Structures are given as C-alpha cells and as structure tokens.
Amino acid sequence: MTGAVACGKTSLLNTFARDVKDAGALFLHAGASRAEQLLPLGVVGQLLDSAPLSASQSQRSARLSAECVTERPDQDSETLEQQHARVIHEFCTLLLELTTQGPLVVGIDDVQYADRLSLQFLSYLTRRLAAEPILIVLNEWAVLEPALDSFRAELISHSHCRRIRLGPLSPAGVAELLADHTDTWPSSPLPTACAEISGGNPLLIRALIEDHATVAGRVSTEDLAGPVVADAFREAVLVCVHRCGPDVLEGAQGLAVLDDAGTPALLARLLDIEPHQADHIVEVLTMAGLLADGHFRHPAARTAVLDNIAGKDRTRLHRRAAELLYQEGAQATTVAAHLITSNQTDAPWTVPVLREAADQALVGDQVEQAIKLLKLARRNCADKRQQAAVTTLLAEVEWRLNPSAAARLLPELIEAVRAGVMETDVTAPVGLLLWNGELAHAIDALNQLYATVDRSDSQAVTELHILRLWAGCSYPVLLRRAPEPSGFPHPDDSLSEAAATDMRLRALTAFTTVLRQDTHAKAVTAAEQVLQSCHLGHAVMDPVIPALLTLTYADRLDKAAPWCDALLAEARARHVPAWQAILSAVRADIALRQGDPEAAEQHARSALGAISDRSWGVALGAPLGILLQALTSLGRHAEAEELTRAAPPEVFQTRWGVLYLYARGRCHLAANRLQAGLSDLTTCGELLAAWDMDLPGFLPWRADAARIHLRLGNVRQARRLAEEQLTRPLTRGSRTHGIALRTLAACSELKQRPHLLRKAAEELQEQGDRLELAETLTDLSEAHYALGESDRARMMARRAWHVATECRTDVLRERLSVCLAEEDAAPLIDTAGVTALSDAERRVATLAAKGHTNREIARKLYITVSTVEQHLTRAYRKLDVRSRVDLPVWLQPSGAATT
Fold first, then answer.
1. Alpha-carbon dihedral 596, 770, 688, 619, rounded to 10 degrees
2. Alpha carbon of 845 to those of 279, 336, 460: distances in Å?
3. Residue 219: pLDDT band by 50, 70, 90 thresholds?
4. Which SUPFAM superfamilies does the UniProt record give (predicted)?
5. CB–CB of 43/115 below 8 Å?
6. Distance in angstroms (rounded) separating the CA atoms of residues 107 and 31
7. Are residues 115 and 42 in contact, defined by beta-carbon separation less than 8 angstroms?
8. Which has more confidence, 184 or 427?
9. Spacing of C-alpha 857 from chain mean position
10. What is the reported pLDDT for 183?
C-alpha cells in the first residue's frame, strides 16, 4: 500500500488486522521507524516478538538475533554477508513454521524506514509466498532511497504482488468524515472548504475538526464564516513534514521561505540539491495535501513550517533566497522582504533594491513597511552620498507618520549638507530643517545648494525655484538671509519643460500670487488644476496644501471646503497623521472664514490631537492661532487666554507666526487689553509688509487695529486704517471689504452707519462669512435703534439673532437681547407680498434671509446661481425690499408668513 504521509495507510492496515484476527488467522505486526534504521533485523525482531513462539522457537530467535549483531574481528565482508544470509534463512524458516497453526498475515508499517537486513529478509520471504499460506502487507510512501527503490522493484516483479494506492479524500469523502461531527459542524460549504485547506489529508481534516470544536464551544457556529484554522492544524502540518523525513522537511522550509516565488528549480538552488530531488520534495508535499500548484494550500501551513525553522537557519535561507530572487529578476518588494527577515544588506545591490521596494510600498500606503526598508538600507550604506539620499527619503516618510521622529534624523542631514555629500535635490532636507525651526542650518543648506547646483541642469534649477517659492510663502526670513546669487537662472518654458508641468511649482506659484500679487483668477484656476491632478504624497512640500490655501486666501471658500473635506477623508483612510493634522488646520481656517467658529474649534483641536506639538514644529502657530480666534469668537475668553503664550519664539519668523499674532491681537481686543492687542496687530502688519504679504485675503489686520484705536478714542487713526484697508488691492468684492466697511461705519457719523453696514452685510453674506455677517447685522440693528427706527432695528435684530444662533455666539445674542426684548408681534412687511411669492421664490428667499450665499443656495436647491439671482430679484420686488439684508427671517417654505 502506497500513499502520502498521513493519508490513512496505518488506519487501513489496522482495520485489516482486525478483520484478519476475526477470521481466525494469525497477524504479526511491525512498525519501522527512522530511529531504528541502524538496528539490524529490527523489523524482524518486532514480528517475532508479536508471534506465539514456543520456548524452543524463542530460544532460536534470541540466538539468531545475537549472532546477527555479533561480529568477530577476523571476519571479512564476504564471511559477514554469508553469516547474515544464513541468519535470514533461519528467521524465514522459523516464521514459516508458524503456518502450521493456520494462515499467517504479516503487516509492516512505514517499510521505507526498515533496516537493510530486514529488507533482505522480506525479499527472501516474498520469493516463498506462492507455496505458503502467508500474506504480507507493506505500507510505504515514496522516498529517495536507493535501497528501497531496489527492494520495491523486486516486489513489483513478482506476479503475486499487488499494489494499492491511497490518494487524498475526495470532497465527498471529506463530507463523510465530517458527518460524525454534525453537532459542531454546520452543513456545506464547510466540507468543500475543508477539502481545499487539507487537500484531503485525513490527519489535517481531523485537526480542523478539533480546532472547530474548540472554537465552537465559545461562539455560535453561525458566526463562523469557514473552518477554524488554529493550533491543532498547525501541529498536524508539522507532524506531516517531520514524518516525511529530513530532506522533505528542509524542502518544506525552503518553500515556506520562498513563498509565492517558490518553484522546484529555485528550491534546488536554494538548498543546493539536484533538480529531481526538489521535484520529488514538491511531489511528496503535494500528495500530503500541504501544497497545491507548488505552493502551500493555506497560509497557516506555511506559517507553521516557517516558525519551526531555527533562527540561524531561517536567516541563512532568507539571505540566500534574496540573492537568488535578485538574480532571477524578481520584483524589488519580493527581494526586499527576504532582506528584512535576514537583516543583511552588505551586498552592493541591496540598497537600490530596498529603495525601490520602499517606493512601491509608499504607492500602496504601506508607510511602516517603507520605513523598515529604508532603515535597513540606511544602516548598511557604504557610500556617503547614497546614505544621505536614503536618510533624506526616510525622514520624509517618517514625517508622514510622526514628524518628531523625522526630526531625530536632522543632525545626520545637517552633517551631510556640511560635508557636501547631498545629492542635487536637497529641497527635502531643507524643508525638514525649516519645518523644525532650524533656520540657521537651513540657510547653510541653501547656500550649499547655491554653490554646488549645476546651473545648466534645468531640473535642478526647477527644484531650487520650488524651494525658494515654498520658503518665500512660509519662511520669508530664509530668503532675506540667504539671497539668491546674481545671474541665477529661473525656470521658464525655454529653460525646462518640467517648470511648466511640475505640480509643486504650479501650486506654489499660485499661492505666491495670492499672497503677493493683485490678480487671483489665474491662481485659482491653477490651484484647482493641481487639486484635480494630485493625491497626498509624503513630502513636506506637497503641492496639495498650497493649492488649498490659494483657494482659501482668494476667498473661494465654496471651492476650498469641498476639496479640503475630500483630502481630509483621504488622509484618514490612508492613516497619515501628519496630513490629517495639516488638513484639519486648513479646514479650521476655512470654517473660521465662513463664520463658523464652533466648527473651526473642532477642526483645530483635531489638528492638534492628530500629532504632538513637537511634531507640528514651527507650523504649530496655524492650529493654535485658529483655535485662539475660534474661542475668542465664541466668547470663551478664559480658554483663549491659556493659548496666548503657547507659541514658541521661532514660530514668529514664519507665516504661521503672523497668523498667531493676528489671533492673539483679536483675543486681546475682545478681553479689552487694548495696548497688548494693538502691539500684536501692529507687529503683524509690519511683518506682512516686510515680507510682501500684505494682501487682504490673508489677514485683514487693519480693521481690528482700527477698532482698538476707536476704543482708545483715536477716531482719526481708526478711520485712516479702515479707509486704507478698503483701498488695498483685491479688497473690493471680498469678505475683507465687508469687514472694512463695518469698521468704517463704526468710525462714521451715526446717520451714515446704516448705509455702510447694509453694504457690508451684502458683501459678507455673498462671501459666506456668517459670523461677520451676524456682527454687522447686530451693528445695523443698534444703529437703527439709536436713530429711533425701532421697526428696522427689530427686523435686523431678528436676522442677526438667527445668524448668531447658527454661529453659536452667545456674546452677540446678549447684545441683541436689549432690542429683541422690546419687540412686538406686529408684522414688519406686507403679508400680501409674502403670499404672492411662488414656492421657488419663497425657498430661495428663505435661505438668503438665513445668511446663505447664492452659491450655497444653488447647491442646496440643485439649481444654477443665475436662477437663484432671478428668484431673488422677483422676491425683492414683491416684498418691496431693496436687498437681501431687508429680507425677513420668518419667511416659510410654503404658506403665509408668520411672526
């Protein structure tokens, strides 16, 4: 009987033995083992030990056994062979004598492990079977053993020899085996799944039954999607490979190491064996149900074999596998996996492979795997330039997960810059130095780049220009202390095609335009093109953020918010904490500009919670400043006060520093610390002017400074700042223009205020800043109240209350309570006009009265902006009002107006 290991040969032999005994025949049994292969006639001894021998026969057996193992010094090999032949003959005679008692059946398990003399005995005995009532049943599975091959060939040559081949259980056979365990096994598809996992090997199937029974005792079988593969299965796998012998065991380990790349040819090279031996190993393991198409059927089987390899052997195999796979041209990720396990990269080819694998890991967002690969490459880099490049990439990748971890590599990068071993692109290390506030070292690095860059290399010049643009937008001090050398070329269409296609260059050019120039249309278009073309990368100077800020500072919040939400969702899905933090801060800024301080607070706290303060570096000023403004707007001055001393000194040399100064100035204004607030806002303005960033889309500091002067009684100075804000480039048609008009109204005569405030409210509502709109409507209500126009005052107060409620600003509602406490229930407009509105006009007018912009209304109602404008025009005429500011807040979507 032949078959794979653990396929049921022994069980079949045991069943046959019971039938033989029940029939009255004599059954003698022996089991060969690898451990007794060197014991002469060990199998024969087991047979006779199980036989009913007489006293004299037992004595003969003992004498023959002793004679077989006793060798005299004067015996030559021929004499010894003659002695063995005689002993074997006498053993056969002794066994044949037992047939006088009846038919005799000899069963031997695992005959492939029988010793040489026992095999000779069996050969001798089989030649005498035709005339004797003896049946010999041998169990064996194929091994590469020349002695066994010869023995097997002799057996098959006899006409009275029959071979029974036991194959794996079929799916039907598996189902039948599982039928006795229906209490823990549900019906299909588990039998089919078990057959696929086990390959029909009964030992593995019983292990699956045991694992399933163990788990089924703790959970409902309905909750189990498939067979449970656990400890019993893994142990059964190890039993199979160990029973197959040391050669097959080593082959299984080699295949486990090679995994999907494993082939018989590669296995032969890995183990330094002949190809036919590797083919035999694969065949044996396939017959045992462990392999299918040359690979492990189930990951747990591979893991069990892999974990069973000793540490040094495992390292050796993985190192050899890496070499072979590299020579075979395998994918870098496959080769690199073996390099990581072997922890060896001393060969020159390993570092490029690890870098390529890291790049591929980053494409799949396997950031931690990329870090492992780069750390291994960096540790064994012999070339200084190569090591600097790997360290730079490692720092960038670590920055995505934990910027403070990347900061630990800065000393090495600084040393590489000083030694002049950085590659041409040193923008990444300079960016990391700047992020962490290492301004002096960043200046050294930039000067080093000026000195070493090849000015005829258009790509290198483009990289330098990108670095300068990025630094100019966020670290203007850097360019003032490390000015560009004269005659340095700038990238343009004639210099480099990359200058026209590089998304970083396009995004930073647009951002620079918004911060420093008075034309925004092209910048907004370029920013949208960048956002449509790019995904979040791993570099500090990623183009996505400047593109988003371009839309934000150009007052295109209707475009910036959806883009930011989509990118923030992407960052969360990809588990990139650094981008989650930065995008949350940008989203907080957008919410603040939309007049939603509560949302701004939530996003700002999310930004600060995503990474540590240390990881934020000097950019910490952004989330701190936005959170400070949000808390101030919400009237939570005690909490805001705690943040007024939170920014480190190096922050104030950056764009984020002036944002924080502006926020702190507004906080001081709200807390009536007028001189402190004026100092912060004036410093903010001076820095913006010095850095050529004093455009209204960024920070309208003059309006807040004017309000402080107004409280201090400096009306002329306040008016000058308000008027100066109104005349700044790009102010008209922006939220800053509305803010400045409101400020100018506060500096004007009482009778002039309503007109200015109405214009301010129109612009603020159009731009979508609801908080400033609520402030302006509150000022307008108070102006009408002071002029004795109580009806108009109440109307404006109602609108302001509604918008302030949406913004959740208790401070404004406290101011409005005075006016609203005196209002009566009389309608302030013609009810007939309200009923004359169509449903579409009423829906549009209702949303406009609540402070929504035309774009927001169009998006909510799924109509065009032009249709919104037409509905509003007709609503104004029917209601006899001049603008959206005069729309009543109690308009209903349908039916008559109510108070």
1. 10
2. 81, 64, 56
3. low
4. C-terminal effector domain of the bipartite response regulators, P-loop containing nucleoside triphosphate hydrolases, TPR-like
5. yes
6. 8
7. yes
8. 427
9. 38
10. 59
Backbone angles phi, psi at 437, to 5 degrees: 75, 15
864-871 mean pLDDT: 88
d(CA 479, CA 517): 18
Structural contact between residues 658 and 681, judged by C-beta atoms closer than 8 angstroms:
no
Q: Measured between alpha carbons, how far is 429 from 624 in angstroms, rounded to an integer?
A: 26
Instruction: Determine contact, residues 807/599, Cβ cutoff 8 Å.
Output: no
Contact in structure between 743 and 723 (CB atoms under 8 Å): no
Instruction: Look at residues 107, 130, 109, 111 and name the one whose alpha carbon lies nearest to residue 119.
Output: 111
* 3-class state of residue 817 by DSSP: helix
Q: What does the block give as tokens for 289? A: 């149900």
Distances (CA, A) of 183 to 186, 187, 210, 233, 255: 8, 10, 13, 20, 37
Contact 727, 689 (CB under 8 A): no
CB 469 within 8 A of CB 512: yes
Tokens 């695992």 identify what position? 110
pLDDT tens, position by position, 375-426:
999 887 878 888 888 888 898 888 888 888 888 888 888 888 777 777 655 6
Question: Chain-centre distance of CA 266, in angstroms?
Answer: 33
Q: What letter does residue 95 receive in the DSSP assignment? A: H
Dihedral class, residue 880 (left if φ above 0, else alpha if ψ from -120 to 50, else beta): left
**What phi and psi, each to the nearest 5 degrees, are found at residue 208?**
-65, -40
| Predicted TM-score of the model (pTM) | 0.72
Distance CA 583, CA 568 (A): 6
**Is 521 buried (19+), middle (13-18) or exposed (0-12) by CB count in 10 A?**
exposed
Q: Shortest CA distance to 429 belongs to which of 401, 390, 461?
A: 390
Q: What are the pLDDT digits (tens) for 118-127?
A: 999 999 888 8
Q: How far apart are CA 187 and CA 221, in angstroms?
A: 11
Higher per-residue confidence, 623 vs 214 = 623
**Burial state string for 863-892 with b = 16 or more CB within 10 A and e = fewer than 16:** beeeebeebbebbbebbebeebbbbbbbbe
Structural element, H or E, at residue 19: helix 9-22
Q: Which two tokens stand for residue 673?
A: 């610390």
pLDDT tens readout for residues 109-154: 989 889 889 999 999 888 888 778 899 999 987 655 555 777 888 8
CB 592 within 8 A of CB 618: no
Reference 623, options 651, 596, 595, 649; nearest CA is 651
Q: Where are the alpha helices (DSSP H) in 731-830?
A: 735-746, 753-767, 770-786, 790-807, 810-821
Distance CA 762, CA 556 (A): 17
621, 583 in Cβ contact below 8 A? no
113 CB burial (10 A radius; 0-12, 13-18, 19+):
buried
